[in-house]
Amino acid sequence: MLQRIQTVWIFLAILGAVFLFITGQDFALFGPVPFISVCCVILVLFGFISILSYKDRKRQLLLNKISIIINALLLGLLAYWILTLPGGMDFPEKGIEPLFPLFAIIFLLIANVFIRKDEKLVKSVDRLR
């Protein structure tokens, strides 16, 4: 069932990765390797696989946990990048890129809560049979 509430939360996390991909094109953190772009593509793929594996809730939880870990790494990397930029606290120069992984982590945690609720509901119905 694709119309579940956790699908919306996972989709919002995917949008966070897409927005980071769009705004993060000009980073050069590790030389010529587009590390942030590659992570964003991986996050989008994991998100869509998670949405499409709605029948296997354990896989959905696993993919969401892996996405949370990748987003946490991106958050730390972007926080380091902002702290090493010159210019003090001028926001036009800094950007809002670290907010996208933070929001994605929050959305994925909320999605995991609803996936666990579905898992408990299915187990309780199986006990009644």
Describe the 3D structure:
The protein has helices at 5-23, 35-52, 57-84, 91-94, 99-128. By secondary structure, it is mainly alpha-helical. It has one domain. It starts with a helix and ends with a helix. The mean pLDDT is 85.
Overall, the morphology is: elongated
How many helix segments? 5
The biggest beta sheet reads:
none
Number of domains: 1
Q: Any idea what the radius of gyration is?
A: 17 Å
Query: How large is the share of residues in beta strands?
Result: under 5%
Task: Provide the residue-averaged pLDDT.
Answer: 85
Helix content: over 70%
Tell how many strands the DSSP assignment holds: 0
**Unreliable runs:** none
Order of helices and strands: HHHHH
Question: What structural class do the secondary elements suggest?
Answer: mainly alpha
End-to-end CA span: 22 Å
Q: What brief labels describe this structure?
A:
129 residues, mainly alpha
